[in-house]
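Bumping with the actual sequence this time:
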Amino acid sequence: MDLTGIIRLSNKYGSDPELVLAGGGNTSVKDAEVLYIKCSGTSLQTITAEGFVPVNRAELEETLTKPYPTDDAGREAAFLADVMTARTIPGETRRPSVEALLHHLFPQKYVVHLHPALINGLTCGKAGQSWMEALFGDKAVWIPVTRPGLVLGKLCHSVMEEHRAKTGKPVSLVFLENHGIFIAADTEEEIADILEQTVATLKGAVSNHPAPAYTEAIGLSAIEEIRQRTGVSHVKFSTSPQILEFLQSRETAEALMTPFNPDQIVYCGAEPAYVTDVAELGPDTVKGKILFVEQVGIFALGQTEKEAELAMLLCLDAIKIAIYAESFGGAQPLTTDLIQFIVSWEAESYRKKEAQ
């Protein structure tokens, strides 16, 4: 199969920080028999043909009706084994994206899955679904937040089939609550048009936009003390008037204390720390990689430069999501139950390892 088009789309969107951060997002191209899907942990910005793994679509289809264990760990392990078995190349070692089944569900040739902050302002908004229906009508569908993996795949299949029965055509735009969007089309131009129209529509609906973050002496001077008190090797700092609005107190910071989406859990950890002064810090104060210091700013911690940089990048993305969500009923984070599932989910543990 010619992968030129999907490589072009992947590199284009993967190079835009407004659309893709770190290893986020995935893409695919298909024919009737085979789906070429991005390998888990591969960067869209630099992906080449070697970054796509071919998967048998008939075998993916079978997972929708095959009986699986009822417990989370057993079900997802068996489902993952079936997806790995569906790879068409004997001895293949590359791992398909965790969303391979969702890509298969679309009959269109190209599928692009992204998690932009602007779009996640909607998907993480308390009134996100009603806003989506008002803004996009039957051009899109909404997938309620649920466990990723097989459970999400089956739910998407049900909602997408219902849409097809209602409208007489396959859906090309899917919003996943607390996750992102899927765009599907038969040409690169159609993918671009749908994404551009979606972004333009949402920009017209938001009333408050994020401002750039920056560093200040008050934060930079605290970095060495934070290193010594926490034992980490690398610390990054960012602040802005908008960030400080959230960090006026523990109460105002509440909107940032719970992750909005899986990417935050992978790169930032599931539980940020909040202190009024760095003197409160001890070796076990920061359980994740993010430290909020009251009226000062955000500190991202890591044992490597890359780890701290990615944590800061995704934390600033969470700030953007919270600000955009103000226009869609206020911010709605992930549930505690779903956070615990993602923390222990093997697929995200694998992605976390690949991100190091």
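The tokens above came from a reply further down the thread. The longest strand covers residues 180-185.
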